[in-house]
Amino acid sequence: MSRVAVMGDVAGHLTELQVELKRLGARDDVLPDDLTVVQVGDLVHRGPDSDAVIALVDHYLRNQPTQWVQLIGNHEAQYLHAPVFRWPQRLRRRSAATLRRWVHHRSARAGVAIVTDSEHLLVTHAGVTEAFWRVALRAPETAEEAAAALNEMLVLHDDRLFRPGVMLGRHDPAAGPLWAQSLTELVPGWLAGRLPFSQVYGHSTVNDWIDPVGLPPAIAHRITSDHASKHEIITLDGGRLIGIDPGHHTNPVIPWRSLELQGHVV
Fold first, then answer.
1. Please, which pLDDT band fits residue 170 given cuts at 50, 70 and 90?
2. pLDDT at 212 > cutoff 80
């Protein structure tokens, strides 16, 4: 087993990314031998340095490809699939071409599985809803099978992968794993069923770290929140839903940390 750091949304904040990588042990843009980074997507937009963030991640994917796993978020999808929303910031052409190269060469993925001594976890950008797992993925029993199916959907540019939900005013229990909103689409479906495996995701959390609000009772008694790391764990029948989006906007949210696990990526 080695260290796996699952990093939430970066949102165009280069300095915050560099500070976190240094905390994890990176020196001179080199990851330590015992570390694999899984970044959940939404590298870009909101912050001021999206193009520089893409360039730094591309450095790791070129030089330490077995130690950096890059997932696609809904903001990267704007440059990979038919855009479904307007965003005032745009990547430079070179950065957009880099994103497309990552997908073409399978350097970027839609999902990945992490195996620890105690559980198997599926990592995606926004989480796989119960309806998407059952209908689009045909109910795979393992995180490894689910990740493989999601990555095949990315290669095929399957529209279901990119399907928006409540965040664009289209509440959909089967919103895709680039778009599912945790409070209204991801968690409710699994409250009524049984998780086949645990999940880790960014994109959204049921907590609002900046402006906390009360949670529904069905969730409140199942959740453990770490405000220093900006992590939340919702314990359900069959596994855990672990949200790690720090909620960066134009300014970064501080403090935050990656989720660190002892395990390996499959």
1. confident
2. no
Q: How far apart are CA 134 and CA 174, in angstroms?
A: 9
Number of structural domains in the chain: 1
**pTM of this prediction exceeds 0.90:** yes
What is the domain range of residue 130? 2-265
In whole angstroms, give the CA distance from residue 144 to residue 127. 15
Return the CATH number at 7.
3.60.21
pLDDT value for 101: 98
